[in-house]
């Protein structure tokens, strides 16, 4: 479950520049894939197309062998979880932030998601430290903690495919380690595709897809890529 396949995908915004010029790749079930390439290579476009923010002009995108243009938007979006660069939190409790978009989840499920993302100890905190209900001022969450709240929210949704847009800013070693631990829990048993900026992500990914100017120029494990070059 969770196989992603792009077949001869051609896509342009407003029918002008071709952002993708015939893209082919496959990420197998439970595999972790990294999208690598310069700015403008087409990484974000691939993510947007998978979530069907736009329709493609040519080719086919399959998830588990099904053409996504023929799948209901709601079931597609249920199958896919997105972790954006910016965590997108509200100034409500972390508990409420994790619950956001998953309103039918039980307390136990929210707590399990918080534990998996290693943010359980802050579950009653507020992202900016302000508890508007009680009028208290606590300690605000660090950037890494906020990212783990976004991971917990996605974990709770339990999608079979995870799309991650890695933050471009460098993280300190401690934050990076905690984030990697949380990610490891969340990637377990899912297919993932990450817009990768960090070397550690690229090295740990099972499949590295290198894009250049709207085309896939390399695709394989890091060992494959090293042996080829
Ligand atoms: P990357 O994520 O690798 O930086 P993108 O997928 O964002 O690359 O961009 C691929 C191409 O599409 C670039 O030429 C970029 O300028 C263009 N592009 C990206 N987003 C838009 C948009 N919303 N409207 C028009 N062109 C866009
Ligand atoms: P970012 O890289 O900041 O996340 P995007 O992925 O949205 O930004 O866009 C990537 C590239 O596409 C940028 O070079 C941006 O200038 C270009 N782009 C984004 N939106 C548009 C648009 N509506 N029209 C033309 N180019 C765009």
UniProtKB/TrEMBL annotation:
Where does it reside? Answer: Membrane
Q: According to the lineage, what is the superkingdom?
A: Eukaryota
All copies of domain ABC transporter, residue ranges: 4-229
**What is the similarity comment for this entry?**
Belongs to the ABC transporter superfamily. ABCB family. Heavy Metal importer (TC 3.A.1.210) subfamily.
What is the recorded name of this protein?
A: P-loop containing nucleoside triphosphate hydrolase protein
Provenance organism: Meira miltonrushii
Q: What is the lineage of its organism?
A: Eukaryota, Fungi, Dikarya, Basidiomycota, Ustilaginomycotina
């Amino acid at each position: 479950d969770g196989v992603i396949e792009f077949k001869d995908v051609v896509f342009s915004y407003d029918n002008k520049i071709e952002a993708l010029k015939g893209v082919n790749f496959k990420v197998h079930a439970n595999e972790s894939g990294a999208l690598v390439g310069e700015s403008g290579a087409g990484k974000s476009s691939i993510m947007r197309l998978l979530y069907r923010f736009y329709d493609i002009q040519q080719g086919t995108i399959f998830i588990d062998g099904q053409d996504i243009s023929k799948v209901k938007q709601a079931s597609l979006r249920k199958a896919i979880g997105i972790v954006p660069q910016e965590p997108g939190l509200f100034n409500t409790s972390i508990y409420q932030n994790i619950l956001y978009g998953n309103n039918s989840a039980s307390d136990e499920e929210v707590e399990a998601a918080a534990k998996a993302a290693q943010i359980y100890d802050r579950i009653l905190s507020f992202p900016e430290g302000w508890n508007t209900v009680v009028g208290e001022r606590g300690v605000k969450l660090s950037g890494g903690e906020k990212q783990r709240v976004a991971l917990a929210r996605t974990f709770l949704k339990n999608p079979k495919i995870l799309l991650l847009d890695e933050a471009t800013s460098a993280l300190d070693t401690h934050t990076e380690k905690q984030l990697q631990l949380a990610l490891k829990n969340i990637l377990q048993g899912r297919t993932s595709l990450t817009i990768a900026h960090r070397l550690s992500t690229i090295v740990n990914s099972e499949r590295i897809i290198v894009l250049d100017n709207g085309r896939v120029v390399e695709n394989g494990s890091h060992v494959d890529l090293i042996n080829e070059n």
